[in-house]
Design brief:
By secondary structure, the protein is of the alpha/beta class. Helix content is about 45%, strand content about 15%.
Length: about 210
């Protein structure tokens, strides 16, 4: 495509559920022709907390060398953003929040303005704060002057995945289960939608001929 867009998928995941959503969303964006960077934010929890949960430790070890850590350069590089986080009492995780709090310089210089942005999340319970977590990220997007791109009810796959119009969300249950295929399809659609809208909003480069 003559105006390929660049999308940064930046997330925090403790035991891997948000990681799975991030990968699916990235797949959808790539399929729609976007250049995509998938990045995890740094872990802030102490080893004692991580080691107390075998699934948490396993995911940290698995992704340490597999997924690069997010940097502010990724925000500057991208034309659009997808942020993922588990819910923490209905709010964004400390790990993702700490990364976003460092973006003040980019915000001050207008680097983040007018860029489309979307969000996704996971929690144990379907009503465990998923919607408030996503809307809290919308507050961030408003401060950045970003263009909020929710999935809405724009495709039947969203109803099959639970019908969250704010962003893809996965209730893991207890014991936790990884995202099911309907939810992964919805995440792929959300990535495709973000790429398509970003492309429509990104001016085509003038021909050099």
């Amino acid at each position: 495509m003559d105006n390929d867009v660049k999308i940064a998928v930046i997330y925090y995941s403790a035991t891997g559920n948000v990681h799975g959503l991030a990968e699916a969303l990235a797949e959808g964006a790539v399929k729609a022709g976007a250049h995509v960077r998938v990045r995890r934010v740094p872990e802030l929890a102490p080893d004692t907390a991580i080691d107390a949960n075998p699934e948490w430790r396993a995911h940290v070890d698995e992704t340490h060398d597999m997924v690069p850590e997010a940097r502010l350069d990724d925000l500057a590089w991208a034309d659009a953003y997808a942020f993922g986080t588990p819910t923490r009492f209905g709010m964004v995780s400390a790990q993702l929040k700490q990364f976003l709090d460092q973006a003040g310089g980019l915000w001050l210089n207008g680097v983040l303005t007018d860029k489309p942005a979307t969000a996704f999340t996971s929690s144990i319970n379907r009503h465990g704060g998923q919607e408030t977590t996503l809307v809290s990220l919308f507050n961030l997007f408003a401060h950045w002057g970003s263009i909020i791109v929710p999935p809405g009810y724009t495709d039947p796959v969203l109803y099959e995945a639970g019908g969250n119009p704010y962003g893809v969300s996965w209730p893991t249950g207890q014991p936790p289960e990884p995202p099911d295929e309907q939810t992964l399809r919805a995440a792929r659609y959300q990535g495709q939608r973000l790429a398509d809208i970003t492309r429509r909003l990104t001016p085509k480069e003038e021909s050099t001929r």
